[in-house]
Amino acid sequence: MYVHGRHYRTIWLKDGDPRVVQLIDQRALPHEFIVEDVRTVAEAARAIAGMRVRGAGLIGATAGYGMYLAALESTDAGWLRRAGETLKATRPTAVNLSWAVGRQLAAMDSAEDKIAAAFKTAARIADEDAEFCRRIGGHGLPLLADISRRKGGAPVNILTHCNAGWLAFVDHGTATAPIYAAHDAGIAVHVWVDETRPRNQGAKLTAWELAQHGVPHTLIVDNAGGHLMQHGRVDIVLVGTDRTTRTGDVANKIGTYLKALAAHDNGVPFYVALPSSSFDWKMRDGLREIPIEDRGSEEVKFAEGWQNGARAEVLTAPRESPAANPGFDVTPARLVTSLITERGICAAGEAAITALFPEHA
Ligand code: MRU
To answer: Is 0.85 topped by the overall pTM?
Structure first.
């Protein structure tokens, strides 16, 4: 996607030095655009744990490049296995992380030249992520075109939660891919952007990327969605996911479930966009099986923003009050209208999902 008119992916190898990975430090957005060098697997793990990079697809791509950096440090099998464990321990919910580590270990295991195999696999994971997101845009576009036709060309109002945009992947994003595709095709769209407390990925990241691309949008507080749906001001909800079971239960940023309930109550279609790397093919019961990240209470009690040219934090709650901070929730498959994948759209159910991905049947 474009930042100030220049094309970027979210992760890449440094020009002229392929031993260095570069990424955008998303903690500084939208106020500063900082590119950071990552040279070791420990630095890659820190980038994920510290949320310089976040979002399911980008966490997976960073893990892919992290394993390549690990191989540059040593190709000893024990070291590589431990490096994979270090990466996997950083964040529990997005399944793309363990998927990418597993793919790298398998590629290196069977290769004579482990560094070359890791290099190729990291690039392949990133390229596939970008390409799958582009295809998701192509499959989702007719949905928005159809709503636009029914509205006689009036703007299609889409509600999205958190950031399942290009910043959460390598390029295009998932929930945003159909939006960018529709906008680029001349279809009038307007996006309601949930601010997404406590880290405000919607306010900081989704609003910024939509603005960079010139997509009309309006920022709303997390609790406004239900009200807007009751008044017919949302045509479709489009979100991403960090892990979806083979039965179609969807883990996504905390608050997604409430949007799905409101959408269900108001007859608003609720779509989830995901690449196949976000399916957990081993899980059937999302509520009981998907690990939900528990984050620190500081994120709830402090608001972070920009003041006098620097990042600043302010306390918004009584210092002594305890705060709980589950990072994700699970929307049961019955509340999901359909899934948009790189292979097409399917119902959120095991038969339909495995019909699209028969290799996992
Ligand atoms: O905690 P984050 O920022 O890594 O959470 C990820 C998300 O932005 C969302 O849950 C998103 O909707 C799905 S990830 C593509």
So the answer is: yes
CA distances to 115, 198, 351 from 72, rounded to whole Å, are: 6, 37, 42
| Ligand 1, pocket-test mutation among 167, 201, 206, 279, most atoms within 8 A of CB | 201
Closest CA to 187 of 232, 141, 218, 233: 141
pLDDT in tens, 1-60: 889 888 999 999 999 999 999 999 999 999 999 999 999 999 999 999 999 999 999 999
Distance, CA 253 to ligand 1 centroid (Å)? 6
How is residue 256 written in tokens? 């997604």
**What is the C-alpha to C-alpha distance for residues 60 and 277, in angstroms, rounded to an integer?**
8
Answer with the one of 76, 102, 128 that is the final residue of a domain: 128
Please state, in angstroms and rounded to a whole number, the distance separating the CA atoms of residues 300 and 317: 8
- Could you tell me which of 136, 143, 144 has the C-alpha nearest to residue 183? 144
For residue 261, is it within any domain?
Answer: yes
Active site annotation includes 113: no
Q: Do 239 and 180 share a domain, yes or no?
A: yes
What pLDDT, in 10s, does the model give residues 235-273?
A: 999 999 999 999 999 999 999 999 999 999 999 999 999
Check whether residue 19 and residue 101 sit in a common domain.
Answer: yes
